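Suppose a colleague, Dr. K., hands you the sequence of a protein chain of 269 amino acids and asks what its three-dimensional shape might be. Before reaching for any lab equipment, you can write down a predicted structure in token form. Begin with the sequence itself:
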Amino acid sequence: MSLGYTISGFVVGMLVGVTGVGGGSLMTPLLVFLFGFNPAVAVGTDLLFASITKTGGVWVHHGKHGSVDWKIVKWMALGSIPFAIMTLFALKYLMSIGKEITGFITFTLGVALILTACALLVRSVLLNRAQKLKPLDDELSNVENTGRFKHLQIPATVLIGAVLGVLVTLSSVGAGALGTVALLFLYPRMSTLKIVGTDLAHAIPLTAVAGIGHLSLGNVDGVLLASLLMGSLPGIWMGSHLSAKIPEKYLRPVLATILLLIGLKFVLH
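The predicted structure, expressed as tokens, is then:
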């Protein structure tokens, strides 16, 4: 196993722990630029990596905090899982007829990174607005009546899930930052803890389905996956403890700028 992969996993894990930004937006560009991996292999490996690392986070949110709204997870999954599977079949078909998918995946990755950078900047605005509203945690059984779109709340949630399903399957980016911002927009009166827990719970089946699909297409490097996990798990633990000591308001804009520049490089490649 390459020590470089493990160190990279540790660094990305620590950044995820400090900022809460999804590992895909950091890990996938790193694998492509620093180690020269084919974008399809970087995306596929990172998806399985994400599904494993996020599982521990959901266990904490559901078991310790009770901060997962499973109704919303179900509605998002109704959109994301079918569209992830359809996207995988589309990739398989393109590969079977000899079409090169690397350029398509690279472009989608760039778009996803640009959207993630924008989401990082918008997130603080949405959080500030949400803090001015009284949370309705005790009434979450009627979220379709308390969300932004009232009777259209469920279709809107399913639609967001569908968009994430396509984007995450093609780029491995979006399940974290974009999912959180989408939920903040759809459910402005839900507590931040519940937003994070719900988004995390939805990301696991999505990244697992997409990752297994990429594995079947031959887009996963097993040695790389194991090396990244060895470094990332202690990195996330350390980053989570450092997050209270590092001023996120300075780190988040810097991270957003870096992701924006990387995204533009992929799109204009």
